[in-house]
UniProtKB/TrEMBL annotation:
Molecular-function GO term, any one: DNA-binding transcription factor activity
Domain HTH araC/xylS-type intervals: 194-292
Swiss-Prot/TrEMBL keywords: DNA-binding, Transcription, Transcription regulation
PANTHER family listed in its UniProt record: ARAC-FAMILY TRANSCRIPTIONAL REGULATOR (PTHR43436), TRANSCRIPTIONAL REGULATORY PROTEIN (PTHR43436:SF1)
Protein's name in the database: AraC-type DNA-binding protein
Top-level taxon of the source organism: Bacteria
The keyword Transcription regulation is assigned to this record: yes
Pfam families: AraC_N, HTH_18
């Protein structure tokens, strides 16, 4: 097996070779990011995801919590969350290079059913849906082998699922194992809260009642509110506002000029309130911010 530094060098080379503007690759669920500039904040909605940073770094803000990870480290996101990111040590000559792998609950569940009881690992304090830390040599080696398969579609079709399974196993048995396991356990507190998170993300324009969300999660209202904040570092209403505004931002990029219509579509009855809250979050009025985003044209993941 390669050393961690050898694997990391190979991952950098392969991301630089295969990264595309839309992040996608021929392997389903595998994303590659190459970002040359790190000036303005990056806002995104993320699904459960493993990210391995190969070059550069990133600082994430989720609610009031701040997370930072750099080359050779990984990030695990266990829920659908609105995040704000700032790239670190990133220039056109030294771009940020990262790999993302979508974490599917059914894939993690299948491994957990086959595995012996796994020891608990300790993760840093903070939101229960995010963990960062050093990537193990075994994880980096498996990631490098998965990226190698991008050069051979025939090999990727057969070997890709096997290497992805190995990556998930290295994740489950590594320092971030506890948080990854919560994704695959149907009865975990995170899984219960994720039901409400998924509903809110799919129905962001609909007014929410705490009683309905708590019932959806199988909790009392007070327990749901406490667990939701633990998972997301936000209250349910703050979460809904962020989802609405980030969905509005995506719509404005595609529908230039229809600012009032977009605000109404994401759930705002008052155009002035929409403009005010949009500017507070993104630092510019909707039209100006959307034009800036179209000009930048650099999608990314956490």
């Amino acid at each position: 097996m390669r050393t961690a530094s050898e694997s990391l060098a190979e991952i950098r080379r392969l991301i630089d070779t295969h990264a595309r503007a839309d992040l996608r690759t021929p392997i389903d669920g595998l994303l590659l990011s190459k970002v040359a500039g790190g000036g303005s904040p990056d806002y995104s909605l993320t699904d459960p995801l493993l990210v391995v940073m190969a070059q550069g770094g990133k600082r994430l803000l989720i609610g009031d919590e701040v997370f930072e990870y750099r080359a050779g480290q990984c990030l695990v996101v266990a829920a659908s969350l609105p995040v704000t990111g700032h790239y670190l040590d990133t220039t056109p000559e030294h771009p940020s290079l990262a790999m993302g792998l979508v974490l599917r609950p059914e894939a993690l569940s299948a491994l957990l059913l086959r595995a012996p009881a796994l020891p608990r690992t300790r993760t840093a304090a903070g939101t229960a849906a995010i963990a960062t830390g050093d990537a193990s040599p075994e994880l980096l080696d498996a990631v490098a082998r998965l990226l190698h398969l991008l050069a051979s579609p025939a090999d990727a079709a057969v070997l890709g699922p096997l290497v992805e399974q190995e990556i998930l196993w290295r994740l489950l048995t590594g320092p971030q194992g506890d948080i990854a396991r919560q994704i695959g356990l149907a009865d975990s507190a995170l899984a219960h809260v994720n039901r409400a998170i998924t509903w809110m993300r799919d129905n962001y324009a609909v007014p929410v009642r705490m009683e309905d969300l708590a019932q959806m999660s199988g909790m009392s209202v007070s327990a749901f509110h406490r667990q939701f904040r633990t998972v997301t570092a936000m209250s349910p209403l703050q979460f809904q506002k962020r989802i609405r505004l980030q969905q509005a931002r995506s719509l404005l990029v595609a529908r230039s000029g229809d600012i009032a219509g977009v605000g109404h579509r994401v759930g705002y009855d008052s155009p002035s309130q929409f403009n005010r809250e949009y500017r507070r979050l993104f630092g510019a009025p909707p039209g100006q911010d959307a034009a800036r985003l179209r000009e930048r044209g650099e999608p990314s993941f956490p």
